[in-house]
Amino acid sequence: MTVTQVAAYAAPAAKAPLERTTVPRRPVGAHDVLIDIKYAGICHSDIHQVRDGWGEGLYPMVPGHEIAGVVAEVGPEVTRFAVGDRVGVGCIVDTCRECEYCLAGQEQYCVEGITGTYNAVDRQGERTYGGYSSHIVVDENYTVRIPDGLALDVAAPLLCAGITLYSPLKHWQAGPGKKVAVVGLGGLGHMGVKIAHALGAEVTVLSQSLRKREDGLKLGASHYYATSDETTFEKLASSFDLILSTVSAPLDLGAYLGLLRVDGALVNVGAPEEPVALNLFSVIGGRKTLAGSMIGGIAETQEMLDFCAEHGLGSEIELIRADEVNEAYERVLASDVRYRFVIDASTI
Q: How far apart, in whole angstroms, are the C-alpha atoms of residue 229 and residue 3?
């Protein structure tokens, strides 16, 4: 394959609706795989970036870092994959490969910074374009295998939503005897409930209302509370070993820190666009930890996919056509999806 144009959906400018276009893909290099994209998940971070919520973006922007597809071509030195393999690509398509974190398999914390799957400039000075497209060329070292036990459509969101929750749950040792709360039952939160339950933890959902209570219990939660009820924070004071906040809106961090046991951790995986305030006495009392976590390394992403296949954990999805993407964005902002939109790439 030489440099070619592929079909894609892109935002031509900040806050502009996405539209069908074409974008270039590089030739398949020695260690590259060409992926025929079958499905691409819609992550809330796509909306943040398309709308310049996290800083100035690069346009035209093709979002999408939850990519599931099939290998269509391999470079001459590729050893990990063959044509026809079921594969995925998440948020990272390159790193320095030399720093202590890359060498430890924690590429997401690369000292030089990651090359994002989209809205980035790669180490050759070329723009990256994401998964809302028909094909993508990716280095084999940043590609993962999707186990046969996972359908490609429900696997796509695992490449961001799944690993974003799996990594902190493993790092903070969620499992039997641990009480875990998940704040928000959306695209991220519903996978947090599934994975934490499969790890053996006792799971509680903390949501604004009880509207999704039945869903939360079916997904694996043992308890479900509305945070709009002020008594919730009194009832659950000092209850949890670990709280995962998946929401993109600013929270009263002090109130949530009050729900932790001594040595508990409140871990943020949602990223609000606005700064948040904190009274440090909220962490000093109880030796509590306020932390963050960002996706996972490539090996851990593979581990997560294998774990999800073993436990039958796919994302709960609503499959859409590519020309429905702008409507889907509005519905995500209105919390009107259960629980992840996935684009059928054959419609691009």
A: 56
DSSP class of 61: B
Confirm if 45 and 294 have CB atoms less than 8 A apart.
Answer: no
The per-residue pLDDT for range 90-117, each reduced to its tens digit, is 999 999 999 999 999 999 999 999 999 9
Alpha carbons 58 and 126: distance in angstroms, whole number: 12
User: φ and ψ at 339, to 5 degrees?
Assistant: -135, -5
**What's the gap between Cα 318 and its chain centre?**
16
Cα distance between residue 210 and residue 188, in whole Å: 18
The DSSP bridge partners found for residue 290 are: 266
DSSP code string of 8-39: EEEBSSTTPPPEEEEEEE----TTEEEEEEEE
Cα 13 to Cα 122: distance, rounded to the nearest angstrom: 20
Question: How many whole angstroms separate alpha carbon 25 and alpha carbon 253?
Answer: 43
The per-residue DSSP string of 139-170 comes to EGGG-EEPPTTS-HHHHGGGGTHHHHHHHHHH
Distance from C-alpha of 84 to C-alpha of 89, rounded to nearest angstrom: 15
12 contacts: CB under 8 Å, gap ≥ 6: 19, 21, 59, 60
Query: Coil, strand, or helix at residue 231?
Result: helix
Record the tokens describing residue 317, joined without a space. Answer: 């999805």
Q: Evaluate whether 132 touches 9 at the Cβ level (below 8 Å).
A: yes
pLDDT tens profile 16-70: 999 999 999 999 999 999 999 999 999 989 998 998 877 889 999 999 999 999 9
- pTM for the whole structure: 0.94
